[in-house]
Amino acid sequence: MKKLGVLSLAIALALTAAACGSTKTEGVKEPAQASPGGTAKAGGGAETGKKTVYPLTVKDSSGKEFTFAKAPERIVSLSPTETEVLFALGLGDKIVGVSNLDDYPEEAKSKPKMGNLQGNPEAIIAANPDIVFAGLSLNKNSVAKLNELKLNLFQTNPKTIDEAMERILLFGRITDKQEQAEKVVAQMQKEKQQVVDALKGLKPEQKKKVYIEFSPGWTVGKGEFLDDMITLAGGVNVASDLQGWKQISEEKVIQQNPDVIFFAKAVPDLEKTIRGRSGWDKIAAIQANKVIALDDNLLSRPGPRITKALADMAKGLYPDLVKQ
Questions:
Q1: What is d(CA 194, CA 321) in angstroms, rounded to the nearest whole number?
Q2: Buried b / exposed e across 149-178, counting CB within 10 Å, b at 16+?
Q3: What is the 3-state secondary structure (H, E, C) of 169-199?
Q4: Which of 47-56, 110-119, 311-320 is least confident?
Q5: CA distance 242 to 223
Q6: Strand order in the sheet with 27-28
Q7: What CA–CA distances, in Å, run from 117 to 58, 108, 121, 179?
């Protein structure tokens, strides 16, 4: 059942990310630009030190504007990523509902379930949330339905690891958890920098070509956090001429001849599928047995643990350089 859930999440990520289109990462309404611990004005609100002063006006990734009179007291999350962020900020007691796929941290499993990644409107209404956080997997029909019900739907869409960190800081401002948000981001920045430092001597000609498959037949091109992760890990994405989440061309992968193939380890028989494709036995990664499993949850969730996934990927590519 868990494997099926992971597969559903991966497929939903692919199918709906493209439908969402390219939207600017969520952020504080201009001209607010605050560095961690700093002060910023946001519409009718302001932040002083570590405390948010309300009303606070921000925009989500769709460009929708929100004004918060106070920190939300009842929160629903429709995405495992958002749920991880909220728990990392110490908001477990404020969370009144999560998606059926939310499994981290352990406490998330006991929260009331709000349906699949598209949400169950009846369950959400019954939870009486002040705000509903959702991510990439929410399709247009679900967005329209939740908006029709006058629910405060706040969508996020980080495209890079840095934007994932910005989202955490934003959630910290919205929920008056700025200090905790800064602590989480500081640890992520440390983990990212360790990878960057370990690979700083890598020459362009030494960088390995990478193919990644997170669901049968699906890979990722430019403009998504997984492509950013490959680049930061010192790899060259063989699908970088594509945009977003795409179905693979088996022939193209053979032509690109990646040095390393990464795959989502909990997807049933995915490694067997990859190794068994016609002509793929000639690919350098398969000949060198560099077909490497990565943790599905870390791989698919641009949340607080995404820099741990970055370290795992970099270590898979360059085990002699990355020791963490």
A1: 11
A2: eebbbbbbbbbbbbbbbbbbbbbbbbbbbb
A3: HHHHHHCCCHHHHHHHHHHHHHHHHHHHHHC
A4: 47-56
A5: 9
A6: 27-28, 56-59, 65-68
A7: 24, 15, 12, 30
Question: In 10 A of CB 276, how many CB atoms?
Answer: 10
How many degrees, rounded to 5, is the angle at CA 131 between CA 41 and CA 169? 40
Ordered strands of the 153-155 beta sheet:
95-97, 75-77, 131-134, 153-155
Q: Which amino acid is at 236?
A: V
pLDDT grade, residue 142 (50/70/90)? confident
CA distance 46 to 83: 26
Region at 137 (left for phi over 0; alpha for psi -120 to 50; beta for the rest): alpha
Q: Whole-model pTM? A: 0.85
The answer to whether 170 and 26 have CB atoms below 8 angstroms apart is: yes
CB-CB contact of 133 with 81 (8 Å): no
Alpha carbon 292 to its chain centroid, in Å, reads: 20
Q: What distance in Å separates the CA atoms of residue 319 and residue 265, rounded to the nearest whole number?
A: 19
Summarize pLDDT for 91-126 with one digit per residue, the tens: 999 999 999 999 999 999 999 999 887 889 999 999
Interatomic CA distance for residues 126 and 149, integer angstroms: 12
Taking residues 146-168, report their average pLDDT: 93
Q: H/E element holding 319?
A: none
Amino acid at 75: I
Please give the Cα distance from 55 to 146 (Å, whole number): 24
Report the amino acid identity of residue 315: K
**CA atoms of 14 and 220, how far apart (whole Å):** 9
